[in-house]
Automatic annotation (TrEMBL):
Signal sequence, start to end: none
Statement: the UniProt record of this protein carries the keyword Glycosyltransferase: yes
The protein, known as: WecB/TagA/CpsF family glycosyltransferase
Keywords: Glycosyltransferase, Transferase
InterPro entries found in the cross-reference section: WecG_TagA_CpsF
PANTHER family reported for this sequence: PTHR34136, UDP-N-ACETYL-D-MANNOSAMINURONIC ACID TRANSFERASE
Species assigned in the record: Glaciecola siphonariae
Database matches in NCBIfam families: wecG_tagA_cpsF
Length: 257
C-alpha cells in the first residue's frame, strides 16, 4: 500500500487514515523507496491522533493547522478507532500505536531502514537507540540527539540530521511542540519520512511501562497511564477525554446537516 491508496475518516475534525498496523508500515516503506528512486523528494510527515490530540486540535487553532499539514495522521489511541465507528462509512480497522510502530517497522522481515532519534534526555534517547539496534538486526541507527535544544535556532541540528541521511526521523518532543517543530522545519529536512513519537523512547527503555495487553485491547491503556503517572496525567485525561468525545459528535453532526 502507498499513501495514495489510503482512505481517510474525519474523526473529531482530523483526517485520519483507515489503515492497519501492517499497512502503515507498508506506506512508510513505499515512501522510503520512492525517495531512494527519486520519484519523491519531500519528506512524508506522519502525525498521530488520540483523545488528547483531538481535544487540543479543537481548542488550539495553530495546532489544528499544523496537523492539517501532515501527509498522514494515524490512530494512536484506541478511542479514535472506536469513535470512527460512530460516523458511518469507512472506519479505522485497528489502532496503530506509535509505541508499536517503533517496533513494527524493524520487526518487518526484509525491511532494513536507517533511523535518527530526536528528543528526550541524552541518556534516554541514546539508550533507546542502543536497545533497538540490539533487538532488531535490521534497525540501523544513524544518529540520536536530545530534545533540549534551541527550537528556533537549530540549523546545526538540521545539518547533523541531513548529514546522517536516515530513512526515518523520529521526533519525540511531546504535543504540540513536536508537530510545530516538524512543520516549521520539514522543508529543510532531507529525509524520506518524519514521524512524531511523543514519549515512545521511554517505553523502549522501560522508564515507562505499557499497560497489560487486555487493557490495550479494551481501549483503556489511558487508565493504566493515569494510574502510573497520576500527577502528570490526571487533569489532562479529566478534561480532554470528555472533550474529545464532544468534538467527534460535533463534527459528525456538522457533516450530516
Amino acid at each position: 500500500m502507498t499513501l495514495k491508496d489510503v482512505v481517510f475518516a474525519n474523526v473529531g475534525g482530523l483526517k485520519t487514515a483507515c489503515v492497519t498496523r501492517e499497512q502503515l508500515v507498508d506506506i512508510i516503506a513505499s515512501q522510503v523507496d520512492m525517495v531512494r528512486e527519486r520519484s519523491a523528494s519531500q519528506p512524508m510527515v506522519v502525525f498521530d491522533s488520540n483523545g488528547h490530540g483531538i481535544s487540543l486540535a479543537n481548542s488550539d487553532k495553530a495546532f489544528y493547522e499544523a496537523l492539517t499539514q501532515a501527509d498522514l495522521i494515524h490512530a494512536d489511541g484506541q478511542s479514535v478507532v472506536s469513535m470512527s465507528k460512530w460516523l458511518g462509512g469507512v472506519s479505522i480497522p485497528e489502532r496503530s500505536a506509535t509505541t508499536d510502530l517503533m517496533h513494527d517497522i524493524p520487526g518487518r522481515k526484509g525491511l532494513t531502514l536507517s533511523h535518527f532519534l530526536l528528543g528526550g534526555s541524552e541518556n534516554v534517547v541514546s539508550q533507546c537507540g542502543e536497545l533497538l539496534t540490539k533487538r532488531y538486526a535490521n534497525f540501523k541507527l544513524n544518529g540520536t540527539h536530545h530534545g533540549y535544544f534551541d527550537k528556533q535556532n537549530c540549523d546545526q541540528l538540521i545539518a547533523q540530521i541531513n548529514a546522517a541521511k536516515p530513512d526515518i526521523l523520529w521526533v519525540g518532543l511531546g504535543k504540540p511542540e513536536e508537530q510545530f517543530w516538524v512543520i516549521q522545519h520539514k522543508d529543510k529536512l532531507q529525509v524520506p519520512v518524519i514521524i512524531t513519537c511523543g514519549g515512545c523512547y521511554n517505553y523502549v527503555t522501560g522508564d515507562y511501562c505499557r499497560a497489560p495487553m487486555w487493557m490495550q485491547k479494551a481501549g483503556i491503556e489511558w487508565l493504566h497511564r493515569l494510574l502510573t503517572q497520576p500527577k502528570k496525567l490526571f487533569w489532562r485525561y479529566l478534561t480532554t477525554n470528555p472533550h474529545s468525545v464532544y468534538c467527534v459528535l460535533k463534527h459528525k453532526f456538522r457533516q450530516t446537516t
